[in-house]
Design brief:
This protein has two helices and seven strands. By secondary structure, the chain is α+β, with helices and mostly antiparallel strands. A five-stranded antiparallel beta sheet has the order 1-2-7-3-4, with helices on one face. Strands 5-6 form a two-stranded antiparallel sheet.
Length: 101
């Protein structure tokens, strides 16, 4: 949990394993979630292949817009690996009336 000014936030990491061909669709789905701040794509050997900050995701007409070069990189990674692990960093504000975990 971090505290910035008067805002309190709770941050946690979720790990998801996805097939290579599902990678782009899953990243688009995560980018639409306003609580997701960052996604790390981890190779099977444990190295981080790509880290995507999603804090400033552009939303246009209800659809999340991800830059074409990022989609090209994701497509190349999807072709390279049968399975990858996603580390999804979530962040949400804690209201003053909520007890801290």
């Amino acid at each position: 949990m971090s505290e910035q000014g008067n805002e309190k936030t709770r941050t946690w990491i979720e790990e998801i394993e996805v097939k290579g061909e599902e990678l782009v669709a899953r990243i688009k789905q995560l980018a639409a979630d306003n609580k997701v701040k960052r996604v790390r794509i981890v190779e099977p050997d444990g190295d981080i292949a790509l880290e995507l900050p999603l804090t400033y995701g552009a939303i246009a007409g209800g659809a999340v817009v991800i830059a074409a070069p990022v989609l090209a990189i994701l497509g190349a990674l999807a072709a390279f690996f049968a399975k990858v692990r996603l580390e999804v960093v979530h962040e949400e504000e804690i209201k003053d009336d909520e007890p801290a975990a």
